[in-house]
Amino acid sequence: MFNFEGGCYAKVIDLDAEAEPQIYHAIRFGSILENVIIDPQTRVIDYSSDFLTENTRATYPIDHIPGAVLGGVGNHPRNVFLLTCDAYGVLPPIAKLTPAMASYHFLSGFTSKVAGTEVGIDEPRPTFSTCYGAPFMPLHPDRYATMLAERLAWHGADCWLVNTGWTGGPYDTGHRMSIEFTRGLLTAALDGALANAGFTPHPVFKVLVPDGCDCAAEGELDPRATWADKDAYDATARGLAGMFADNFAQYRDTVTAEVLAAGPDATA
Questions:
Q1: Segment 134-160, tens digit of pLDDT
Q2: Under a CB-based contact definition with an 8 Å cutoff, are residues 105 and 183 in contact?
Q3: 3-class DSSP state for residue 234?
Q4: Which of the residues 51, 215, 242, 258 could staple to 100 if both were Cys, CB 3.0 to 4.6 A apart?
Q5: pLDDT, tens digit, for every residue of 50-66?
């Protein structure tokens, strides 16, 4: 594993020292700000201002982050995380993936474009981007998905699908996952607590949902339980499952039967 960029590039609109302390304190001499408003007299940064755009950014050297491995080289990871932002609010906040599921979701690359990141986006817009980076894949996408599954199996690494999007409903009625909640789930995965939990397959998406976690309230890991209207949840979940199937049709003839069967079931 290696890092050839040697730095970080973060979105900083409404950056808060308590919620994102590492990024907040990394922005100091040696950093570069983009589209961020600074008082010309006091040089105080106004992270809350979207005067130029909501897509405000900061870049800073990797050594501004405490504990960073400056050589950029490490052992094979014990945990691999795929990130998604589900604007429909139907995916669990975290779920374990088998190698076949990891291939399926890596090929699907489901997430949402959010307001302020791209021109013309004023509300979350679901999208599929192969391998979470379609424009940058020189080989056939199935090659990368196969490599991912092989390495997960070879090294016995756990793979997780982490949803940083909405819960309790879609973006217009639910609420966004808090960064503190997501951070707690990641910590539980990294320290092995989640791996030792029981898992229940999601009836539609098939991903393995942890039965509990110290950082989650009862029912908080089950996305259906967070919706007041269960019928609306079921319909929305099946609708998203159908989108997965439609998008994945392009890979139907190139993946194994195991990977194809690992995807969501719109008829469940």
A1: 888 899 999 999 999 999 999 999 999
A2: no
A3: helix
A4: 258
A5: 999 988 999 999 899 99
